[in-house]
Amino acid sequence: MQLNEIKPGLQYTLLSQTGPVHAPLFVMSVEVNGQVFEGSGPTKKKAKLHAAEKALRSFVQFPNASEAHLAMGRTLSVHTDFTSDQADFPDTLFNGFETPDRVESFCMGSNGDESLSSSGDLSLSASPVPASLAQPPLPGPPPFPPPSGKNPVMILNELRPGLKYDFLSESGESHAKSFVMSVVVDGQFFEGSGRNKKLAKARAAQSALATIFNLHLDQTPSRQPVPSEGLQLHLPQVLADAVSRLVLGKFSDLTDNFSSPHARRKVLAGVVMTTGTDVKDAKVISVSTGTKCINGEYMSDRGLALNDCHAEIIARRSLLRFLYAQLELYLNSKEDQKSSIFQKSERGGFRLKDTVQFHLYISTSPCGDARIFSPHEPVLEEPSDRHPNRKARGQLRTKIESGEGTIPVRSNASIQTWDGVLQGERLLTMSCSDKIARWNVVGTQGSLLSIFVEPVYFSSIILGSLYHGDHLSRAMYQRISNIEDLPPLYTLNKPLLSGISNAEARQPGKAPNFSVNWTVGDSALEVINATTGKDELGRPSRLCAPPLAADQDHQAHHLPRVQAGG
């Protein structure tokens, strides 16, 4: 150890050993220059290393911890993924005390006044970054590789010493906690979330580095957000993490902090609305769970049963209720028109106000084409899919009755008939990937609202796990990119696609047979038996077509219609 080289003969003392036999916690201490430093760890050796680290930080007169880290000779791989929950920063630091590899010096800005030395250390005498670099409308400096041996907090501390990190919140189920930390850099507010505070702090620092200094520590193409082609009012990762937290937070509120029996789920989905550039003003519109479809014998020819209880499909149905309510609000009075998300369209009918955007959150990739990949396949050097024409790619797929997963649609498949299903033929339901791809063309508003409202598209699709940019973008819109001759007002929507910083863990086990839904304004969750498509008492869901159609009939006489002509 380098501390022993500087101060030979130091004595380490075992202060305590706590915890169960299979997971002990040791506390060691060492005295240096009259000061006692303590360190803890799962082994005595790790505890001694922690104590030595604290001692060395104090003993070696460096202005910040990152220089002490460099002096200790600890290096991290330049390819370390600081967004992965597998990266536990304290453990990755203790990998021996080798001399760091030399790296090429580089300039961080166009003026070259902030550069790395050949040892990989940032020049501490560098002048501050010009304020103009912190302005979002202006292009940032060119990206540069992260210095070897440093995590985001260390790098940011060298660029902006003395930053203070604040703990904002703690949420999530007991086995999947999420902590949120924040930091203010150059007047800009950055948040990060993770399964512990240290990881959340690192992600807040990483967000600041990416935004202000254009320094991206995770260069894996498949994990990067895919930007939208439309109006983008928010930073992708900040938006994605905020939407995820809002949906999880609302679900926690609705299930008594996940203690309700109806908190059981495999997939959670929700829709969040933003009305400007500040994510803090975002509002949860709907929350839902579910992974199953109706049993064929319970289908209703009057629309009194929910055929598809997959979470993302239910979340979009709940969004429809909100859209109807907002139209009704617009018709109430001139005062209420200001509160509605709709405004009159020059084409007749209504359209969303310019700053209103809807964001779909799904806790995992939607079933179908977006999920047909190996999440731990080796990272390819090419950013794109090496086998885009493989038969398994881009196919239409269907869910299967009384099961999970999807199967490809055969080109020579027989037509599914109502009486055939009632007689025992397996009911096939369109996969979620295919349905969302359809929404990216026709909108989410449905055929009834299309008479009165211009298409309503999702501005972003955010996944809580199993995010792969190449596969998700193909499933959501690239496989139909050659679509032509769409009617006026309709387009191929290409929303922002993103994963979240604190990815959800895989949830093995049998999926529950129920689905829950909630729309803003509801007092509680509605529980639906996914097998029958109705509630526990056999009554139609509040999301069924007839109630929605009744709302539409009530409003139809008062509403101008969208003119389809150019």
Write structural notes for this entry:
There is one protein chain. The chain has 566 residues and is an alpha+beta fold. The chain folds into three domains: 1-59, 2-Layer Sandwich (Double Stranded RNA Binding Domain), CATH 3.30.160.20; 152-213, Double Stranded RNA Binding Domain; 226-374 and 393-410 and 419-557, no CATH class. Helix content is 26%, strand content 18%. Strands 16-15-11-7-8-17-18-19 form an eight-stranded mixed beta sheet, sandwiched between helices. Strands 1-2-3 form a three-stranded antiparallel beta sheet, covered by helices on one side. The longest helix is centred in the middle third of the chain and has 22 residues, at 311-332. The radius of gyration is 27 Å and the shape is globular. The termini are far apart. Residues 60-145 and 380-384 have low confidence and may be disordered. Residues 136-149 have a biased composition (Pro residues). This is Double-stranded RNA-specific editase 1.
